Amino acid sequence: MKIVITIKLILFLIICGCYGQSKHIETEIKKEIPTWSDGEVDLFYKLTKQKREQLKLRDLEEGFDSLQIRVWIDYSLIDFRELYTFEYQNNKWEGVYYFMRTDWNSSNLTETITETKRKIINPKSGWKDFSNKLIELEITTLPNMGDIEGLVDGWTDGTTYNVEIGTKNNYRFYSYHLPDKFTEFWQAQNMVEILKLIEEEFIE
After folding, report:
1. CB burial readout 5-17, b (16+ within 10 A) else e
2. Cα distances (angstroms) measured from residue 72 to each of 139, 163, 178
3. Whether the Cβ atoms of residue 114 and residue 102 lie closer than 8 Å to each other
4. Do 167 and 64 contact (CB within 8 A), yes or no?
5. On the chain, which terminus has fewer CB atoms closer than 10 Å, C or N?
6. Cα 182 vs. chain centroid, distance in angstroms?
7. How far is Cα 127 from Cα 59, in angstroms, rounded to an integer?
8. Measured distance CA(52)–CA(200) in Å, rounded
9. Single pTM value for the model
10. In sequence order, what are the beta bridge partners of 35?
11. Dist. CA 129–CA 101, nearest whole Å
């Protein structure tokens, strides 16, 4: 099974044109960014972009060689945020965890980071097993929760999980709000399993 999952990861990187150590990033990047029914870009995408710029993180929309996965955790009623980054480049994985405190301005819909803590992280089971499980759970291809047919989110508060995927030729952003409330949908169940995996691998 591990061999099959590893092959899936390699195939994904090949399809995205990001396997190996190419020094050139293509200028044509395919982007998948969710929008609201009125055509407006998703608010969580805008807020994630704000925090990304404040943390001085690389803009994945410009392409990334080979693969970077970011999982942003947004708690609606408290002032802290979290970010896990998993980066595959030069044939090795690296992970970083960020803890942030933020100041939310509801009048202009902005978040200002007031405190940041950063640390290097490594999964307890090792990068090979961890990355294989992430790919098996389809973290790179899950749809945005709002695009899942038949799923109606009536919850107004609660944690939202925002995922950024960057490769050489592709950028994806998608969100799941309280996925544990919608586990009858396999996509939400997969998101729950991804979050559980991250907790098991990185939280003491």
Report:
1. beeebeebbeebb
2. 13, 6, 14
3. yes
4. yes
5. C
6. 19
7. 24
8. 25
9. 0.86
10. 41
11. 31
